[in-house]
Predict the structure.
Amino acid sequence: MREKDHHPTPAVRTTYTSADVARKAGVSRTTVSYVLNGNPMARVSEQTRKK
């Protein structure tokens, strides 16, 4: 018997947006932006940052 060439299915690359992250964390897109950009003026609790 011949061994078939094994060609794995290419991985599907998923791109997530700040809106996706905000929806999943239950926060606003603005909050996501503040946390990701390290905005020092933003008042975001540590608990929210961890989400």
Observations:
- The radius of gyration is 20 Å.
- The mean pLDDT is 87.
